[in-house]
Design brief:
- This protein is of the alpha+beta class and 387 residues long.
- It folds into two domains: 132 residues, no CATH class; 223 residues, no CATH class.
- The chain is built from eleven helices and 13 strands.
- Strands 5-7-11-10-9-8 form a six-stranded antiparallel sheet, with helices on both faces. It has a four-stranded antiparallel sheet with strand order 1-2-13-3.
- Helix 3 runs antiparallel to helix 4, helix 5 crosses helix 9 and helix 8 packs across helix 9.
- The chain starts with a helix and ends with a helix.
């Protein structure tokens, strides 16, 4: 017979239970579930003992009424497993006759069930949807009256979205332009959370002589622009002296001009060049160049509102540091993540936090996450239903 506890959960609260592999998953506190299961097992075997004792008693009464002889071992009543084994050894007869086997099996199942509930019913993380509380939300404008913006690296929203990116990546989720982001440590973005991506790809390597305007890089930047590896717009770059006397730099430029040179709102892309770290003052200058464009139709309005050059200049130092910390590896991934973070905060550059969206749909009020759930493995479930 299926336990009443499980019947109650399955039929009265269907949204709180699901299958995960061969296990049952409950959206309840694991400690409370363990207590409930142990109470259930205790009550179940208490009732079994009561019914068994009544069976033993009635059998003896029936034999007396029929004036049949009664063996002493039939008069023991229902015993727990240890007492049944002890009486069996002492009397050399099973107490209660064939019911002795039921006594021992019931005791073994009760003991095993208690151990399994204690050791196997645990909390696991499963991929699901969690409630979104407060954070950065990419709310599209109601009209075209938004003014030009350029988000600041010092804005709290930047920290929020970058933390969300790292959290989602660590939890096995997607990294991209999120519809909303908060500080939930269980955040794991899925397809419903991502508006799109920035795609960054390697273009080519180039090299400059060691004595080619190594001082402040103006000559290098101009040459890269002439070669089409950087746009002839506002170029922002930064460089740093290395321990061996060498320098390394990072430069990027958008395809769009700043106001008042370009008053047309458009989706812009980015070209980036990075001098690869090296040893030796007089070594040639190796440079890797990349091209980045956005693939996010639902987030184009954000990029259209930004002053491209001013926006990138706010994040040049952060980009330089991120690439240096990674020892010039995964540069395309770092570029994409940085531009995705910039896009997210561009929707509300001066409002680091916003409340949950007005919409009441499940996708508007929740986000992908690793949800903590109480797991009942199939062996435990089998113990629960066998009696």
């Amino acid at each position: 017979m299926l336990p009443r506890l499980l019947i109650r959960v399955v039929f009265l609260t269907p949204s709180r239970i699901l299958f995960h592999g061969s296990s049952l998953i409950f959206n309840v506190d694991t400690a409370h579930l363990r207590i409930g299961l142990r109470v259930y097992l205790t009550g179940l075997f208490f009732m079994l003992s009561f019914v068994g004792n009544q069976c033993c008693s009635n059998r003896v009464k029936l034999r007396l009424m029929r004036e049949h002889p009664i063996s002493v071992n039939l008069m023991t009543g229902w015993l727990d497993g240890y007492s049944a084994l002890k009486a069996w050894v002492a009397q050399r007869r099973p107490p209660g006759g064939w019911l002795a086997i039921a006594m021992i099996l019931a005791w073994a199942i009760s003991f095993t069930g208690d151990l399994m509930v204690t050791g196997l019913v645990k909390t696991i993380d499963i991929v699901g949807r969690c409630e979104f509380d407060v954070g950065v939300i990419c709310n599209p404008p109601d009209d075209n009256s938004y003014s030009w913006v350029f988000p600041s690296r010092d804005n709290t929203a930047v920290t929020i979205v970058m933390q969300a990116q790292n959290t989602s990546r660590a939890n096995g989720g997607q990294v991209g332009i999120y519809q909303k982001a908060d500080t939930d440590p269980n955040f794991r973005a899925d397809d419903d959370d991502v508006l799109g991506y920035w795609n960054c790809s390697f273009v080519q390597n180039t090299t400059f002589p060691a004595d080619f305007d190594k001082g402040a890089y103006e000559g290098v930047i101009a040459s890269l622009q002439q070669s089409g590896l950087l746009y002839n717009t506002s170029v922002d770059f930064t460089y740093e002296a290395m321990p061996a006397g060498n320098k390394t730099f990072t430069a990027w430029s958008p395809s769009a001009l700043n106001r008042p040179n370009d008053l047309v709102r458009k989706v812009w892309d980015v070209k980036v060049c990075r001098e690869v770290s090296q040893n030796g003052t007089f070594a040639p200058i190796p440079i890797m160049c990349f091209y980045c464009n956005m693939n996010a139709p639902y987030a184009e309005w954000i990029v259209e509102l930004m002053e491209a050059g001013e926006t990138l200049s706010q994040f040049t130092g952060a980009l330089f540091g991120a690439i240096s910390d990674a020892n010039d590896t995964n540069i395309d991934g770092i570029l994409a993540s940085m531009l995705e973070a910039i896009t997210m905060v561009g929707s509300e550059p001066r409002i680091p936090f916003n409340k949950a969206p007005v919409g009441k749909g499940i996708l508007e009020t929740t986000q992908g996450c690793l949800a903590a759930r109480a797991e009942i493995p199939w062996p435990v479930f089998l113990i629960l239903v066998v009696p």
